[in-house]
Structures are given as C-alpha cells and as structure tokens.
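Query structure, 68 tokens:
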C-alpha cells in the first residue's frame, strides 16, 4: 500500500495472492482508489495539528503520499 507507506505481504502459504491486495476486495476499483486517497487526505489533515512539535523529516516522510 504505497500511498500509506505500508508493507503488505504478497504471499501467505495456502492463501490466494489475489486477496492479499486490498483493492481486489472491492468490486469497484475506481471507488477503492478514490476512497484510499480520501482517507489519506484525512490523515494529513488530522496530523496538521501536531506538525509544530514534530521534526520536519517526520512530517515529510511520516504521512501518506498524496502524489498519486
């Protein structure tokens, strides 16, 4: 889950790899993408109230990536 900087397993013994990709659990892939971006924006907005007490590198690298 690139947008959130999370590492998600790509293989688990006995599990179909297709279900390990969160987007594949949504019938509407475009809606998934839209909602993932919306959630990322909410994380960024919520974090704004804490930015003053956080080192700049954490602010830059610590939150979701809104570039895509």
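Result returned for the query:
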């Amino acid at each position: 889950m690139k947008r959130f900087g999370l590492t998600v397993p790509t293989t688990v013994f006995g599990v179909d790899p297709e279900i390990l990709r969160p987007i594949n659990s949504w019938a509407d892939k475009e809606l998934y993408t839209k909602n993932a971006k919306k959630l990322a924006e909410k994380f960024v907005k919520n974090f704004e109230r804490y930015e003053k007490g956080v080192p700049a590198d954490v602010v830059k690298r610590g939150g979701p990536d809104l570039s895509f």
